[in-house]
TrEMBL record:
Keyword Methyltransferase: yes
Alphabetical list of InterPro entries matching this protein: RNA_MeTrfase_RsmD (IPR004398), SAM-dependent_MTases_sf (IPR029063)
GO molecular function, one term: methyltransferase activity
Keywords of the record: Methyltransferase, Transferase
UniProt protein name: Methyltransferase
Length: 190
């Protein structure tokens, strides 16, 4: 059972049907991730982009913890429908779902960058080159000093970061690694 850890919807469960190919981030890993994000003060009032949203657990957790706006991108239409149902059930009106491949969702960047927190939890079968391409497509969406978090298997290498993205460091949680980086177009990490 997957649940929201804290915030306005804390303790509420998320519908996550089997067979959609999603593997929701475990409650333990999400709790550790969001403890770090809150320590860095990047969740409250943030504009969040959740790529490869799957069950929506990461983006919905951010919304529950006070993110101003959360966009969840998921290509599987059934999973996207389930995320929409979870949003309605939890009353998280600041969330929207885009049911399309992440590459298509990122292809037309906004007139002004607004994303302060980018989270990406690609399926394990998304190769490193494809992930690098997605991260490069995401750059025009990011404000200066935006935080990027990429969840991967501990057997996967460090993501290939686009120019102006600086690695902060990984955090390991069993078989999961969270890679933290910052978009620093001036070349300096805040």
């Amino acid at each position: 059972m997957t649940r929201i850890i804290a915030g306005a919807a804390g303790g509420r469960t998320l519908a996550t049907p089997p067979g959609l190919g999603t593997r929701p981030t475990s409650d333990r890993v999400r709790e550790a991730l969001f403890s770090r994000l809150e320590h860095l003060e990047v969740v409250h009032d943030a504009v969040v982009l959740d790529l490869y949203a799957g069950s929506g657990a990461l983006g919905l957790e951010a919304a529950s913890r006070g993110a101003a706006r959360v966009t969840l991108v998921e290509s599987d239409r059934k999973a996207a429908g389930l995320i929409r149902r979870n949003i309605a059930d939890l009353g998280l009106r600041q969330c929207q779902v885009r049911a399309e491949p992440v590459e298509r969702a990122l292809a037309a960047p906004p007139a002004e960058p607004s994303v302060e927190l980018l989270m990406a939890d690609p399926p394990y079968d998304v190769g490193e080159d494809a992930l690098a391409g997605v991260l490069a497509l995401a750059v025009p969406w990011l404000v200066d000093d935006a935080l990027i978090v990429v969840e991967r298997s501990s057997r996967s290498p460090e993501p290939t970061w686009p120019g102006d993205v600086e690695l902060i460091g990984p955090r390991r949680y069993g078989e999961t690694v969270m890679w933290f980086a910052e978009y620093a177009p001036e070349g300096e990490i805040a």
